[in-house]
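Problem 12. The chain below contains 272 residues. Write out its predicted structure in token notation.
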Amino acid sequence: MRFISKLQDHMKFIVYSSFIVFLFVQSVMEPRNPELEVTGAPGELTCAKSNCHSGGSFVGTVNLEGLPDTIQPGQTYNLNFVQKSNALTSGFEITSLDALNMRSGTFVAGAGSGVAIGRTFNRQYIRQISARALTNGESVYSFSWKAPTSLNGDSIKFYFVGMAANDNGKNTFDNVLRGTKSVFFQNVLSSSQEQLMNSITLSPNPVSNYFYLKSDIVEPIRYQIIDLIGQEVLHGFISNGNKVDVSNLDQGIYHLILKFSSGNQIKSFLKK
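Solution.
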């Protein structure tokens, strides 16, 4: 019995120790990756402003290469993130957003990069998993990005930052290089589809408690309401002539997204 008791105590110690180690590992930040949500996109800071890296005075440029001015729905593009600067090492982070500042498209990691979803806005980010030395004043990260099949609006904007670092193993005397790139989205509707889309109206606008949707579309429409930084506040289904209760929303501007298989329609309204 004494042996069994000692064995039980030993097993409890192992389980407890393993739990403590697990908590410690979970609490340690991944040192190879930058923080998420620091691209300078709407609602975000940059790594410099969040005090992750600061104090540097490196100069240079960052560019996202491989995107045409007009992209095709569902097409995959091979991209290069290029930093040219007088820094010693580099890193990066990028996100792609639609007209409503919501996640748009899908990044696929390449050598030296990884993808992750941010907790605040549910945006996708691609970033380095290890710093890369500049050779002759240049560093390149290669990866791919797949365009969405439908879009809110008619364009996508990429927000990106490059870390210009001094390779001292710390977050001091480094600085951020920022950039953006916008591309147009080719979404072709038939004349009948365009006519149905144009039949949709939202009233009254401004809204106090309810708004009504009128259209020539018979079936229920899936909808989503988001605020100006892309966070969802309401969702559901609505049919022609039905009303949506927005009485609990704060005052401000919101976007109603009507979702169709052929694409999305956006109606903006002011909540009084």
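Discussion. The longest strand covers residues 172-185. Students who got a different answer should revisit the alignment rule from Section 12.3.
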